[in-house]
Queue: 4 jobs
Job 1
Amino acid sequence: MPAPDATAATNAPDNAYPPTDRTVPTRSRERASYDREVVHAILDEGYVCHLGFIREGAPVVLPTLYGRVGERLYVHGSTGARPLRMAGGPGAEEPGLPVCLTVTHVDGLVLARSAFHHSINYRSVVVHGTARPVTDPAERTAALDALVDHVVPGRAADSRPANAKELAATAVLRLDLEEVSAKVRTGGPDDDAEDLELPHWSGVVPVAHTYGAPVPADDLAPDTPVPGYLTRL
């Protein structure tokens, strides 16, 4: 991992991640943010990240669930899963897997008068770093609880914890939030002045996700109430 730019790191406020060569965009730099609260909010609202790494000289990108605990992200999977095997584990000389992890939300479809200026409103986070296996039992437990609670806050305490057999089949990777950036686009289309009189509709179609009413499992006891953390969704 390249070292952060010394000047940027020195000038970065305490609540911001220091910019690096890999986190400063080459285009639309005004949309970039290194603010921790902005980054955390985007991460906490998402469910699926895309985890990119190199295998045998070729790029691989996998969608997976994740969870955040402070300045760390966790992903998990079968002990036989490719990235989890490649990251190594106890006894490895240098356990760890260089990765790039991304999370993106689509907030609107931006329709311009010209095809060239069509866009989307979005919020995204890109994290560069080395994913390392979690072997400490207490950290593994906290990470797995965080993965469950990331999907539905409060669910980890309202479900059976993983047993020894399940834990033995599950691997967890940790990615520290150190080399991080967010990028956000908001607002309407950027039509050229000469296109403003064209007769094409222009504007934004908002995009949002919603939750439906919880659907009980077929074998759920009829008198089992819907937990409060679900009704709050």
Note: The first strand starts at residue 32 and ends at 33.
Job 2
Amino acid sequence: MDVTLIVLSAGNSTRFGYEVKKQWIRIGNKPLWQFVADKINEFFDFKKTIITANPKEVRLYEKSSDYTIIPGDKERQLSLKNALEYVNTEYVMVTDVARACVPKEVVLNLLNNPADCTVPFLKPVDTIVYENKTIDREKVKLIQTPQLSRTEILKKALNTDKLFTDERAAIEALGGEIKYIPGSKLSKKITYFEDLDLPCLTPPKKVFLTGNGYDTHAFEKNKKMILGGVEIDSDYGLKAHSDGDVVIHSLIDALLGAAGFGDIGEFFPDTDEKYKNASSVKLLEEIISTLNSTGYEIINADISIIAEKPKLKKYKTKIQRNLSNILKAPVNVKATTNEKMGFIGRGEGIAVISNANLTYKDWHEHYNSRK
């Protein structure tokens, strides 16, 4: 069989109730979205694997994966329609990132029982009441993913403005053949933080991720000088598209380097008028928010400012405290000269070298503390 795997991972994780988005909690050293895709790919040789991501995070997914990453949408069905544009196999298997521990036998059973749509399900064991009336639980199915569908039929079924909660419902509405197979309790859907009690979800690895950043800016007359978010008493500032805070620019690159997320120019290009004269503190806060939501915790940062002028002795502590408050982590700030050498020594500008350390946010420890 030629089969494409689609992992839907574009949700905002609003019900999860944790500062890290569900798809970004670390299982070992992998974010959940990659863990799920890798795990299912161990069971079968899929022709292609497609992962939908929040449009703002597509680049971040691509940094650590060879899978085809495409922008998702706010609705599951719209994300799936986007992904189906890249599918040319006869069958497509669709799963949700929230189904993290789907066992091998379920995947193989789906592949061995093709239909217009093949669906795993569980039988309810509790009494079921609907609109204050008890109904026959033998007639009830608890539907799970992944589901296997004929690609062309699924594309046709989703060519509508009506929203369906899964592929089965769409194909059923079209009159397609639905085949049901036994599901698994291990395929439990992670909706809330309390749902992380699944045996395949190992704690994040205890790692120290180090990144470095370097930035330099020339002086510009009649401009305010800001370093580390602190205004410096000077009659010249730093030439830049934004406010020219060379300290924060260097720090941002160090943080992004530790996370493997590229560099500041990928997030805030100097060709974008939106960032003209932008506050670098606001840019740093945006990067910190991105790191927090994608599963990183800042350990510390160390910054060296290299400048012949202005003299920064009385500002170092202010810069250090300000950045520490923003990062909510220890920050050390050093200042030195370039011994009159080069463009710095000639008093033409400032250079900054930063180092930052991150680790994975330990959701497992937090989970145990809430028991």
Note: The longest strand covers residues 209-221.
Job 3
Amino acid sequence: MHPDLLALQLRLQHQFSDPGLLQRAVTHRSFSADHNERLEFLGDSVLSLAVASLLYQRLSAQPEGDLSRVRANMVKQETLHQLALGLQVALVLRLGEGEARSGGHQRPSILADAVEALIGAVYLDAGYGPAEALVHRLFAAVEINPQMQAADKDAKTALQEWLQGRKMKLPSYRVVATDGAAHRQTFDVECLIPELALTERGSGASRRAGEQAAAAAMLATLKAKKL
């Protein structure tokens, strides 16, 4: 294994049984077909569950809606970007030549996605327990308090709370198309609410941004329909 990846293992406090997972987690789609987007997809779900369990323990007096809002603050791109900087992920990112020239090593969306991919890689390598422990270590220095609930709600959180308030299932998101060169892609994302038979789309420079745009479009539709 490359010395930089060995150093990243030490920062993660996890030794990979399958080093290939670690390498894939830091590989952008502009570098290779064997990139980290599937790991990112998996890590996003593991991260959400691990943060939810952390908040359940730490904020035992808070209701569900407040916990959802605090979690949204913790798993947003800005927070994950800061975690990536702490892990020095930029040192090991594998980017295509064009993406590297355009500043990809410092791009918050790429670094945040790599953190999710690393969490997904640990999950595949060793199971949920070690992945949850990694998430808890990463967030050990992040302040967690009920005041976080006062932060502005993003579109995904606002939509989730709207549905929860009506006892409906959470929406599903899926990438339906990607356009553009590897280092300047646009992600077209679909947001679906099965119980209302409603579908909306949004696009952004990352999967996360596309999901936010799709959620915002769905909220606008719900408002227009006065639901």
Note: The radius of gyration is 18 Å.
Job 4
Amino acid sequence: MLRAIIIDDERLARQEVRRLVEDLGTVQIVAESGKPQEALGLIDRENPDLIFLDIKMPGMNGFEMLDEISGKAPEVIFITAYDEFTLKAFEVNALDYLMKPVETERLAEAVEKVSKRIEKRMAQVDETEGSSDRLDISDQVFLKDGDKCWFVELEKIRLFESEGNYVRVYFEESRPLILKSLNALTDRLSEKFFFRASRKHILNLRWIDRVETWFNGGLLVILKDGTKVEVSRRQSVKLKEMMAL
């Protein structure tokens, strides 16, 4: 059964969503809140699979709230009375966007999509990884750069590149710049899948196409998209050990 949190500043709206969701019998509502800041604490505490999220709320809208989530992002179904946010909702890869009043059939369809995506992701998890506070390769994260935002599965991110106090994130055709340090990312990413190549780069090991010798005992990694990443001499030793039979 999916574990979910309802976030909406209207109490009656929360009650109606709860009633509809509980009638489905496939989702357990573990918490609800009408305050985005409070909801962030609930998300950290409950680690839900899914959040039903309103967009227009006092103090912080739904997109801004998502930007405050640290680490693993839950699946999101937006529920709102305003249709002008439809395009942006799908730009962030939300599972669905439901208009108030919510129709039972549409809600059931949205929840089914969430279930299928979570099942697919769980099937990709390597059981040998074990329990850890680090993000798994199949987890998704929320990224925001200015007015643009994305939900991205970590397996699709091929490279993190430090740019001052920011980090450039490379996935598909996008290159957002996020306010994070490479050291902070190193502490959150699984070493099994992400490798700190140097003070400037973290690369996804699954995206490596080939490795060539480089100057001063270092290595040059060529990713599947053709991007070249220099590996420091010290980290080259570690990479050779990791990739050796």
Note: Helices lie at 11-24, 36-46, 62-67, 86-91, 104-124, 182-188, 233-243.
